[in-house]
Amino acid sequence: MKKEKQIFVPKIYRANRLFILHLIGKFLLYLTGWKIEGTLPNVKRIVVVSAPHTSNWDFIFGMMILFGIDINAKYLIKKSAFVPIFRTILNRLGGIPVDRNNPELLVQTIADYSKNNEGVLIVVTPEGTRKKVTKWKTGFLRIAKISNSIIIPMGLDYPTKTFRLEKAFNPTGNNEKDILALKYIFKDYRGRHPSRHLAPGDLNI
Questions:
Q1: CA separation (Å) from 88 to 61, 66, 70, 73, 95?
Q2: Which of 78, 174, 175, 186 lies 20 to 30 angstroms, CA to CA, from 203?
Q3: What is the Cα–Cα distance from 107 to 137, expressed in whole angstroms?
Q4: Considering the domain 28-197, what is its CATH architecture?
Q5: How would residue 1 be classed by pLDDT, with cut points 50, 70 and 90?
Q6: Where are the domains of the chain?
Q7: 66, 36 Cβ separation under 8 angstroms
Q8: Is residue 75 within a helix (H) or strand (E), and if so which, with residue range?
């Protein structure tokens, strides 16, 4: 059996979880066939932009990856998911509640936190929902700019069961052009529900 190459996780981003949790994560990845490819840069702050987001299973497989390679990451999740029975678990797993009625406050809070701390890796989904949308959120561009974070696109591809870290994305400062450029990076990735993907016409060709 061919052994998958282990992605290198810089020390600044290692979670140092209990070894048993790391083993469980690796076992689940082996069992499901999911893997992560690419390079995680050894820098102080990273915003990972993950797409396409079409299913709740994205979160489950993503958690397997986080535990399997023992990486410490923060991620955005809708506030309504933080009900009492799940709140403690989501907080421990790195979840950050999103109040869709006040997105500007969230962006500023996360940006300030990242700016004042090192070893901060935040995962965002630009669609902001599992449904098909043509207009992506731009808050992560502000977060990256204010906190001086590197932007790393990460594609999800269900046919190959792969999370793939692309090369660092350098924003131009023009949100419309930057979002369009990111859409092109993700256009060949396939989520769990293809009907929710962007159509060629959505790329404003």
A1: 20, 18, 20, 16, 10
A2: 78
A3: 11
A4: 3-Layer(aba) Sandwich (3.40)
A5: very low
A6: 28-197
A7: no
A8: strand 74-78
